[in-house]
Amino acid sequence: EKISEILRNYPANDLLISGYTARAGTEESCIALSKERAAAVADFLVKLGVKDASCIFTQGFGSSFPIADNSTTEGMARNRRVEITIMN
């Protein structure tokens, strides 16, 4: 909910929400999960009244683009994430 306060400062900007996963299972399942993760965040932001759904775009990258080592529990947790980009 803290992020909603920041995003409200950009009422004219669209949002791009990108979902990611740790490497677990098939890449197909990782992509599906990452898309679901991004969509869940988008739905949450809409419910909070941050943006209309037509102003939020989502995408899922699966386990591509890890930010940490997937061989550790901590690394896998960091790779299970969403990133929100404020568009111009």
Could you please describe the fold and organization of this structure?
This protein is an alpha+beta fold. The protein has one domain: 2-Layer Sandwich (60s Ribosomal Protein L30, Chain: A). The protein contains three helices and three strands; from the N terminus they run αβαβαβ. The protein has helices at residues 2-7, 27-47, 73-79, and strands at 15-20, 56-60, 81-86. It has a three-stranded mixed beta sheet. α2 links the parallel β1 and β2 (56-60). The model has no long low-confidence stretch (mean pLDDT 96).
Question: In percent, how helical is the residue content?
Answer: 25-40%
Query: Radius of gyration from the CA trace?
Result: 14 Å
CATH class: Alpha Beta
Mean pLDDT: 96
- Approximately what portion of the residues adopt beta-strand conformation? 15-25%
Query: What would you call the shape?
Result: elongated
Number of DSSP E strands:
3
Structural class by secondary-structure content: alpha+beta
What topology does this entry show?
Elements: H1 2-7, E1 15-20, H2 27-47, E2 56-60, H3 73-79, E3 81-86
Parallel strand pairs: 1-2
Antiparallel strand pairs: 1-3
Explain briefly what this protein structure is:
The protein has 88 residues and is of the alpha+beta class. The protein is 39% helix and 19% strand. Strands 2-1-3 form a 3-stranded mixed beta sheet.
Output the keywords.
single chain, 88 residues, alpha+beta, 60s Ribosomal Protein L30, Chain: A, elongated
